[in-house]
Amino acid sequence: MIPGPVMVAPRVLQAMARPMISHRSGEFGIIFDDCRTLLKEFFETKNQIAILTGSGTLGMDAAVGGLIGKDDTLVTVTNGKFGERFTEIGERYGKVVPLAFDWGKPFDLSRVEEALEAGAKAIAMVHNETSVGLVNPAKEIGNLAKKHGAVFIVDGISSIGGNEFKTDEWGVDIAITGSQKCLAMPPGLAIVSVSDKAISALNAKSAGYYSDLKAHLKSASKSPAQTPFTPAVSLFFALQEALHMAAEEGFVARRDRVAKLAGAVRAAASALGIEFFPEINEHSGYSNTVTAMKIPKGMTDDKLRGGMKKQGVVVSGGQETIKGKIFRIGTMGVCSEADVMKTLETLEQIMAKEGALSKTGSGVEAASKVLRP
Ligand code: PLP
Asked: Is the CB–ligand 1 distance for residue 54 below 6 Å?
């Protein structure tokens, strides 16, 4: 029950056991095209799609490295670990104006506008900040980016396919996801959508060789469609199967189901007197793919997560400065109602055992009401 890598359905695992094919063959091209067609629907975009062999961070690196040369400026807006990664990547390539808010606190949009007024080639943010369970305002920042002519990069790695994410409507020029999150497949693919505006701005001489988005898009437009270098072919088999599985459920239906699961987790937490870690406001909300909660009073991270693990339920802890202070429950991909209920039952049992139930309400009961109203 961690926020990625998530559980993978047997049919997706089986797809990876298929015999190897050439990545220059027509057979591969058909799979690649099928994936890109479904991914456009998944991303809600008409933009071009590149599929890179590597984890989500490779997509972030490809976007920033392709756009930001040593004389270019990138504004980064951050309130958690993965936003800060954009700052670190940007510093490798060019100039960065980092707008760092406290972890888990909403962005101040007036400061974002001020930063853009000073002139920047691009602005980067994380939509669903996995480290703190907060959904950041991509639509609002997209409007600001457009107004100031900046290329808009959004890390949707733990968001696309789980939270609402409208690439074209929000003006996202480069949107990124990773295979091990809402697509519910193993780690190893970074998927990136690229607008025409971003393509014409991808001219940094320092762009990575392996991660050069222009080269990836050029190869993808060949017949048969290809990647510039040998990709992880088995992961493409998995991607095709995972996308068909999600399409059979319905991309929107899957998102709605995940929202309900997260709603159940939040209802249980409230009934048990557990506080949420992130602060929300009118522009920022709780995530439907990962719920971040403070370790309840009277408990330690070790007792809570350690106790749950002994009963077969693995949830995540906090990272860096909030290590030991929070725990996180992931709800994405093929995670089921039964998985969520088992997790919440286990949490409640452990809290009861440690005498940490500050309220008399039952978390499991509150969650059931959300799942089966
Ligand atoms: N961005 C976000 C929002 C993430 O959740 C993660 C991973 O958890 C990453 C970036 C990094 O992705 P990867 O570990 O696949 O490189």
From this structure: no
What's the pLDDT score for residue 205? 87
Cβ of 82 closer than 6 Å to ligand 1, yes or no, is yes
Domain limit, last residue, from 199, 215, 249? 249
Verify that 239 and 147 share a domain, yes or no: yes
- Compute, in angstroms, the gap from residue 232 CA to the centroid of ligand 1: 19
pLDDT tens figures, 272-310: 999 999 999 999 999 999 999 999 998 999 999 999 999
Task: Please give the distance, rounded to the nearest whole angstrom, from the Cα atom of residue 371 to the centre of ligand 1.
Answer: 29
Domain membership of residue 319 as a residue range: 251-371
Long-range (24+ apart) CB contacts under 8 A made by 10-18 are 11/241, 11/245, 12/184, 12/185, 12/238, 12/241, 12/242, 12/245, 13/238, 14/241, 15/237, 15/238, 15/240, 15/241, 16/186, 16/234, 16/235, 16/237, 16/238, 18/234, 18/237
Ligand 1 centre from 56 Cα, in Å? 5
Describe the strand order of the beta sheet including 134-135 as a list of residue ranges: 128-129, 134-135, 285-286
Q: Identify whether 2 is part of a domain.
A: no
- Looking at 222, 249, 276, the residue that finishes a domain is 249
